[in-house]
Amino acid sequence: MEVEKSFFVNIRRTGFTRASWAVLLLVFTVIAVSWLQITKESVFPIWMVLGSEKNSIPANTQSCSGFFREGPPRKVVKSLTDFGGVGDGKTSNTEAFRRAILYLASFGQKGGSQLNVPNGRWVTGNFNLTSNFTLFLEEGAVILGSQNPKEWPIIDPLPSYGRGRERLGGRHISLIHGDALTDVIITGKNGTIDGQGKMWWDLWWNRSLEYTRGHLLELMNSHNILICNLTLLNSPFWTIHPVYCSNVVIKGMAILAPLNSPNTDGIDPDSSKNVCIEDCYIESGDDLVAVKSGWDQYGIAMARPSTDIIVRRVSGTTPTCSGIGIGSEMSGGISNITVEDLHVRDSAAGVRVKSDKGRGGYISNITITNITMERVKIPIRFSRGSNDHPDDRWDPNALPTVKGIFISNVVSVDTRKAPVLEGIENASFEGICMTNITLSGLPSSATWRCEFVKGVTVGVHPMPCPQLQTNDSSFSCPHS
């Protein structure tokens, strides 16, 4: 099948040979199902993917149906070649993309538009999307990030961060960017977006970055977004970053970067609400999925929480970070997060909650269930930061509040270390509930390490720390 062939080529090209056949089979199944949902027409029938009144089959309750609202078919469909695009892997198409989207933006209130990227290798710098718009990568299409840093312009820092995440001042814009948009679809027949991030990783390793690296795909202040059926490779920094967004669906994605590439998070919903992430495979040099909401005093002042987020059927590996990370930038608050059916292997951590003094904010009502881990160093970890602050104006008295962390149905095999739960002195880390957890492979001498936390456990093996064996009548821990 051509989809499978394309996926194998992408893996060979980037050196990804570690994935187990079982995991790859899962990915192929997801892609095959997605393939069947694409008609022969160039306009993508979103209702077939997400379900709506147009489909007589009831929407699957275990899907992202309802998070994204489909509009009518795009009225105008153009190809990048109509604007002078050349897919030879050498010619810069930055101006072609920009001309195309400038033209297609004029149809935003006239039925919307779609830009097709044909089979070929299309080198480009940054380009910005528009509303009521579909970016469609045809089979065999590869968008390649420019190796000229000037084609990744400098933009203002995010107000909830106060500065670039890595360097003071501004930051490089993402390769594909959008601000204040509505009704945006980024999809295709398993096309590829390759950030060619090694140039940026080298700058990071050599400590010669002048500005914070750009993401591969960032949408800001936007609503009703769908990203699906693509392969994303080699992001310079975080791969997909919806920030200050609502009603975002990310599904059926393969996100790959070398396992030693710095900070190449897979998907980072940030100060966003109503986000659904499902059926994705991720290999990266950082968290597979990380939920964020601003950094220290800047995030506290902006007070834009991340809330009502679902992460479902995600699998992958990261040698230095976690399968699911909550924080560490969480100063605007994080609540109502559901993570289920997560498969993490050969990783530093499976589930990780990250905070620090100065963060303020809160983490509440986090439900994590049905987790499988293989050869994970620390399966469950709560960690304090390491003096990681935007500047010297952070408030050491701004302590986070953590309450209502529900973790259940976890199986970890070949576990390297017992869980580590480090709260913060004088901060509230309570209402932690763990049920039906089995950690196998630990040496007999391994014990949980807990500090400044309080909770309840049921059916957890080996025996947890005393702080999680309390009989707290004010907190109910439901049995699984």
Separate helix tally = 6
Report, as a whole number of angstroms, the end-to-end distance: 41 Å
Assess the beta-strand content as a share of residues.
35-45%
What structural category arises from helix and sheet content?
A: mainly beta
Helix content: 10-25%
Q: Please outline the major beta sheet.
A: 19 strands, parallel
Radius of gyration: 22 Å
The average pLDDT is 89
Overall body shape = globular
The tally of beta strands, per DSSP, is: 31
What low-confidence regions span 5 or more consecutive residues with pLDDT below 50?
Answer: 1-60
Summary of the model, kept short:
This protein is mainly beta and 480 residues long. The chain has six helices and 31 strands.
Give a structural overview.
By secondary structure, the chain is mostly beta strands. The protein is 12% helix and 39% strand. It contains 6 helices and 31 strands. The chain has a 19-stranded parallel β-sheet that branches. A 6-stranded parallel β-sheet has the order 20-22-24-26-28-30, with no helix packed on it. Strands 5-10-13-16 form a 4-stranded parallel β-sheet. The two termini are 41 Å apart. The N terminus is likely disordered.
